[in-house]
Amino acid sequence: MIAREHIDRLVGSNANVVDSEGNKIGSLGQLYLDDQTDIPNWATVKTGLFGMSETFFPLNDAMTDGDDVRVPYSKDQIKDAPRVDPDDHLSEADEDRLYQHYGLAGARSASTGDTGTAGYADTDGMAGTEGYEATSGTAGTGHDTSGPTTDDAMTRSVEQLHVGRETRETGRARLRKYVVTENVTQTVPVSHEEVVVEREPITGANRGAAVSGSELSEEEHEVILHEERPVVEKETVPVERVRLGTETVTDEETVSEQVRKEQIEADGTGRRSTDRRDREL
């Protein structure tokens, strides 16, 4: 159970509510105190889009875990709890339905000693009760129906939207080097020798060489033929350096969110009153 001294720290803190597996259910909404004992026994958790939905869960076995509130129930069990209007008070019928859903039949009488109902705990840790009537205090004082007597003015508040930025990882890029094979064709001129039979007539200049041998004989002459062939060599040479870099590109995104603000109206049957107020910022 949440200790009484922790109420002031939890109310309005928007602490995370986590289930028995450590999964976040939502943010803490309102705390409800028992009318008889002033002990917190119910709370709401804000779920859904923008936290607009509130679901009740019992605080009997809940405990604080740092800035979180840990409950011994699953996320689905809390989200499937009976829908109850999170006003300033829980009726006995509402509590009975909730106790039955969480399997805590009889827990109300065991924790409070009677069948007392639960009231909402405001930021001062005071328990409001349904049907509380304003006292006949001095002129100009008012009574907040969810809390103690106030001064002669109301405070009107608005929610302001603060949009920040965060950096997160969107992906990764890699350089990968691999080897491919391609055909390269080049034309190279080559030469070769061919046999050519040369004939010359007998003249006075070559007659001596012509008759130097026997008159009739057999002989052979040969020449060696040559040709050129392509010779291929391969050499590895560097051609460029490649690296990965990043550049920052700035875009604009439009953020839409709902904000709430309080409005104050004056009711009465007397003379027409003039609303004097400063310019709203």
Automatic annotation (TrEMBL):
NCBIfam families recorded: YsnF/AvaK domain
Matches recorded under InterPro entries: Bac_photo_RC_H_C, DUF2382, PRC_barrel-like_sf, Stress_Response_Assoc
Domain named DUF2382: residues: 154-265
Biased composition annotated in UniProt, kind: Basic and acidic residues: 258-281
Low complexity bias: start-end ranges: 105-129
Organism: Arthrobacter hankyongi
Name of protein: YsnF/AvaK domain-containing protein
Region of interest (Disordered), ranges: 105-152, 243-281
Polar residues composition-biased segments: 135-149
